[in-house]
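Posting for a labmate who doesn't have an account.
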Amino acid sequence: MRGIEIQKNEPVDRALKRLKSMLDGEGILEEMRRRRSFETVTQRKQRKERTAAKRHSIRWRFQRDKAEDTEAK
């Protein structure tokens, strides 16, 4: 189970926000939502297309940064 350390004098809502952002970054919240109800074939295809688009945009951004670094040398 994932968790966070609450710092001294930290508001609970800020700690909760940190927890949610950590879970969201790891994909745990999306998986919980997905498992909550039945997913049709069409919905599964749409979800996979969304995640692939997000994954490719991140990959493209980092590849572009590497290409710019090698050109600068």
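Reply:
Got it, the structure tokens are right above this. Residues 39-73 form one domain.
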